[in-house]
Amino acid sequence: MTFFLIDNDMTKISPPSIIALDGPAASGKSTLGNKLANSLGYLFFDTGIMYRAITWIALQHDMDLRNEVMITELAQKAQIDIRPPSKNDGRPCDVLIGDKDVTWDMRGGDVDANVSVVSAYAGVRKALSEQQRRIGLRGKVVMVGRDIGTVVLPEADLKVYLDASAEERARRRYDELIARGEKSNYEEILKKVIERDRIDSTRAVAPLRPADDAIIIDSDQMDAEQVFVRVLELCK
Ligand code: CDP
Fold first, then answer.
1. Distance (Å, rounded) from C-alpha 90 to C-alpha 105?
2. Which residue's CA is minimally distant from atom 12 of ligand 1?
3. Is 164 left (phi over 0), alpha (psi -120 to 50) or beta?
């Protein structure tokens, strides 16, 4: 693992070019990744968006999510477009499928409850992680997901695994939903977070786990700013 990339004149130290940020559901990866990318002038790429988009399309078309062949074909063909944010409503980017803005639809309870089934399919992972790798290898990127440091970009210059207890993560997700004006139930959210973690970490292909060379940060006792400062220090 390379922490420091020394410029040719050996006087300047550049931050790591490929930053992999993995961790369980609602551990704060997106908030951290977005902030980090902004401050470094890097691309922020939240790979969960791709798995969510496939799940959203399948649900819209009443597809049987247990039909691995059909869902894999969908992942191979789907045109997911990610653009700079068109609204100032907390979104890090616009997500478009065709010309429909699905940025918040993809964060809905239906998608949350089903995305781990879709993302466990080997063919779906192959189709999406090839695209993620191609984009990530261009560098100057903060890539967020579950398997970035282990599978998608094992050569990443800095790998961070952001963790927190299920209770703390459920509380954060609950606050997020309430802030967006959505109805929410903490106990329900906690159950779903635990179930999603279980499926994500026990699947056969690219299970959620820290890479051997990842720096693990437990954020239970840290707020978003403290986590950001800690990772920024690692970048230096
Ligand atoms: O924001 P949150 O942490 O709740 O989820 P997300 O990052 O949007 O990811 C949604 C789901 O996509 C996860 O629960 C995983 O099942 C899947 N995922 C994955 O398998 N691999 C990735 N690199 C990113 C997401």
1. 14
2. 48
3. beta
Pocket of ligand 1 (CB under 6 A): 25-26, 30, 47-48, 51-52, 115-116, 119, 145-147, 196, 200
How many angstroms is it from 11 CA to the middle of ligand 1?
39
Query: If you search the block for the tokens 């990318």, which residue do you land on?
Result: 37
The residue assigned the tokens 């006087």 is 11
Which of the listed residues 27, 47, 133 should we mutate to test ligand 1's pocket, taking the one with most ligand atoms within 8 A of CB? 47
The closest alpha carbon to 196, from 117, 124, 107, 104, belongs to 117
User: Does domain 18-42+139-222 correspond to CATH entry 3.30.470.30?
Assistant: no
Tens-digit pLDDT string for the chain (236 aa): 444 444 444 445 688 999 999 999 999 999 999 999 999 999 999 999 999 999 999 999 999 999 999 999 999 999 888 888 899 888 888 899 888 999 999 988 899 899 999 999 999 999 999 999 999 999 999 999 999 999 999 999 999 999 999 999 999 999 988 988 888 899 999 999 999 999 999 999 999 999 999 999 999 999 999 999 999 999 98
Class of domain 49-137: alpha beta
Q: Ligand 1: which atom is nearest the Cα of residue 30?
A: 1
Residue 131 CA, ligand 1 centroid: distance in Å: 16
* φ, ψ for residue 107, nearest 5 deg: -95, 5
Domain range list for the chain: 18-42+139-222, 49-137
